[in-house]
């Protein structure tokens, strides 16, 4: 996985948990 994809997944996961 490229760093960009990792950051994107991490962002989405964080948003999902925060929401």
UniProtKB/TrEMBL annotation:
GO terms for cellular component: photosystem II. One of its GO terms (biological process) is photosynthesis, light reaction. InterPro entries: PSII_PsbM, PSII_PsbM_sf. The keyword Chloroplast applies. It holds the Pfam family PsbM. Keywords: Chloroplast, Membrane, Photosynthesis, Photosystem II, Plastid, Reaction center, Transmembrane, Transmembrane helix. It comes from the Eukaryota. This is PsbM. It comes from Coronidium oxylepis. The lineage of its organism: Eukaryota, Viridiplantae, Streptophyta, Embryophyta, Tracheophyta.
């Amino acid at each position: 996985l490229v760093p960009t994809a990792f950051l994107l997944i991490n962002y989405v996961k964080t948003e999902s948990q925060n929401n």
